[in-house]
Request: fold
Amino acid sequence: MRISLVLAVFTASSALAFPWMTPEGMEALMKHPEAQKEIKRRLEEHVGAQSGTVAPRDPQLGTGLIPGLIDLIGGTLKAVVDPIFGLIPTEDAVRGHKRFPEPEYPFRPPGSTDQRGPCPGLNTLANHGYIPRSGIATVGQIVAGCQAVFNMGADLGNLLASGGAIDGGDILSTKMSIGGPDPRVGILNGALNALLGTPTGIAGHGKFNEGDASATRLDFYLNNGDNIVFQPELFKQMHQAALLKGDGTYSAEAIKYHFKNRYEASRAANKQFYFNLPSAGVVMGAYYFIPGFFSNGTLGANGIANEASITSFYGAKPKDTSPNAWKNPNLEYTHVPERIPEQGWYRRTTPMTVAEAVGGILDVYLYAKPAIGGAGADQGFVAGPALIPNNPQALSCFFYNAIYANFPSELFNTVALVSSVVNFLSSSLVPGYKALGCKVDFPQASGIGSTYRETYEKWALQYTGEAKTKAVGSGWYKKP
Ligand code: HEM
Reply:
């Protein structure tokens, strides 16, 4: 009873939240006189901006991290002085690193109307003003903030943030909420939300970004749609993994172990469990981000994700603050707003590119070997792709294509205007995409006509499988 009620609510709200996913919704939009005027104006603006004045982005590939990456992140990290609370790592670990926090970006807790969501990285950026404190940000603002504080490569920032904008934000303004739906985001800056519904924000479940089996958030269907709020019990489990597998640090080994446990627990408890590409990739990538970005110093070069860094970035406040309390596997936590460690923290020196992040996803995946797919309506498991692309280049190309493939296929066949907008967005993705030599070229395939549909359907079957539309927990589930 409860499940069918939740499902009914979800089905109804997803239709409202993504009205342009249906031809009817799109038609309504296209016929609206104000919308037509505004879309035309914005397209002209975008086309103008594209024609020459904007320098191509540096995709920042070639950090030399792909060969041996899996060894690097899976291996034992050298201990530094006081790996648990020592916020200043060894000299070697911080040579050339930039120190944070910066006085120009003071920490301020979010106000009552500010959006915060499932991502501790973005929440931290908003709490320090590196992206708007409102939590409503454009693709460009998110890319710049992630680069400034965490040294995320522009290619990776663009890939994640564009996925967020296309699946959970406004494709015209490129704005999105870093939490749930917000009336300030929507088609034509929200002006048409009353008519067409409000985009979900990056917390939108099972599309490009948010997925099940997350490190510290509960599954969408297990918590009445709340996949945003930090769960102290899950953080406690991650802390236990750190004690057991990382000598008290949140190393790659510790977080992989935590992921394996989380996958098994979610799959057992969640009758609408959904773990399919691309959102499953984002979930596994987020696990790698814990040591990859939050380490104090550079992971693989003496940088360590210690208790002090992780608790601060996650906003996990231990109830017992006595010096040896961290050794207690039953240590309890509460939640406070996420912040850069006050005592001082050093960001990684090399940008994390798409290639490194995807290497991290593969490392997490190969450790736990989770089945890819989702629960079907008949309580069976609808399998996703049999083999997920198993090398960083192939899997990276998959993610680029997934951005385009996740864009509703109806639109490619019917609305030329929208494909122009997507082409605009793709200008932020193409450099990284090209640099990796990806083959199926969705942005190049203009998206119009029957050839596109055939290419898309072949691609979808191979790479996302039937689970995308047939598993009930998928954001794309269509009732039989
Ligand atoms: C480029 C923009 C980014 C976007 C669009 C984004 C989006 C997301 C989303 C949708 C989730 C939920 C995934 C899930 O279901 O588990 C998530 C989780 C997460 N993100 Fe981000 N993220 C971004 C950047 C970052 C950065 C820069 C960091 C670290 C510095 C980060 C660290 C994490 C972590 C650790 C989680 C897992 C949270 C948990 O469940 O414990 N993200 N992010």
